[in-house]
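In this supplementary section we document a worked example of the pipeline. Step one takes a protein sequence of length 569 as its only input; no multiple sequence alignment statistics are reported here. Step two produces a three-dimensional model, which step three serialises into structure tokens for compact storage. The input and output of this example are shown verbatim.
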Amino acid sequence: MAQDIFSGADGLLKVFEEEGVEVIFGFPGGSVIPIYDRLYHKMAAGELRHILPRHEQGGIHAADGYARSTGKVGVCMATSGPGAMNLVTGLATAHMDSVPLVAITGQVKTFAIGKDAFQEADTIGVTMPITKHNYLLKDPCDLPDVTREAFLIARTGRPGPVLIDVPFDVSASACTWREGVLKSIPGYEPPGKGDPEKVKAAAEMINTADKPVLYIGGGVVSSGAADLVKQLAERTNIQVVHTMMAKGAFPETHALSMGMPGMHGMAYASHALQHAGLIICIGARFDDRVTGDPRKFAPEAKVIHIDIDPAEINKVRRADVGIAGDARLVLEQLLEIVQPREKNEWGRHLDEWRATHPLAYDTDPKDGIAPQYIVEQVAEITNNEAIVTTEVGQNQMWAAQYYKCIRPRQFLSSSGLGTMGYGFPAAIGAQIGNPDKVVVDIAGDGSIQMCIQELATATVHKLPVKIVILNNSCLGMVRQWQDLFYDKRYSATLLTGNPDFVKLADAYGGVGFSVTEKEQVRPTLEKAMEIDDRPCIMDFRIPSEENVFPMIPAGKTFEDMMETAPVGV
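The serialised model returned by step three reads:
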């Protein structure tokens, strides 16, 4: 029923209230002033919290970190033109990793669209390939219903980012408020339960498989199915490998956990997949970092593929049984009919492989501190319970290898897009969404500088984010490739002119520590954990030549794995 006359901006914010939005990460500008004008009153009344980043990319990564760590829809906002364009990397990051976001962008007035007006950009055209859906609004009265749709689309099915482009005159003009409770959208029906016959066929394959492996991905986290994966694994005594997106979806400390496979995964996890007779894939997509050359990946394995996105089934690896459905609902169906199993010879073989092919590193390198040791100490001091974000590169891989997670939504990393600069703003969003938890960003000295201005954001809001910089004075992962495959031609990867990170932390109002000796690692981490009102940077000096192993070169297979550095390198 029609009620009061509102502006489009009022309608937008009222739907935010309906949706339970607690915080917006946004950067104002000319085309979103009407929204910020109405937001002023909400903020003053304590009805909405607004976080002002120092760059729009920092804002969307923070909204992403908030969403991943809480399971809620993250909300960000930017002005038209350059503001919207600065969201592009964050939208692509969220799209690749299936993160539920709603992004509001300003746009020039409707009559000026397409005329190269000041700060105009084709936001819809640019973002169409990297959003789950997007909208360009022309009528202020459509804004409430479109916003409701955006939240429903973002959080249901395979989650993802949705963008609403709002022209200045649409947010400023009057609209008639319409009450509404949106439960479905015509033509949009995400899969629910799996086809019963396919579920039955999958159960029969599991019951009779000699060499099964559970391969789980981020869909297990999105669907809230971690507890059911654990039930399935324990009932059937099937070992579990996980993608980076699924770290913690099955406790990495569990006896059946085989860790992360793939390019820089554990040798025993890759071995389990490569030699499996049955791969039970749940909410993962057979990405190239796991499969390497898909033509040679797991040649003997039959595949059960459970995914809420039908497009993922048969996209990379043909499924013998493909089940389009919500992971939690399909697992509920499976658990009704799958039979208990004892650990068989295959399971014992995998246990032996895990014992005889562990992760290993030089604990006392000549030049600096072993980065693996630093991550292990972070894990020990936080009892493996912190929310860990990462940047991208060697730091990301060492974090994935050596910080064992015990619950879902604990490890936040740009897995699909590999976005440098993601970790620190994501940690800010995670800390805001989880004020009572320890949040640690494991970073490199290259990637941390891409969004380091967000130290101001963390300081203003008194966020005790811990930033562990593994400082090797280079772009470590690219340097590693140059080291191993390009005859040590270090082209544009050696970082000269790095700042003094301790002074930088101090300049922004945070705390900084420089660590050059192994004996300083634990005391410094302990000091950092005591700081509860501002960010803390710890600058750990690690060897420039340290590489991440194991490593399967891009496009190769398990047979090409380097568990340690090749002789002579």
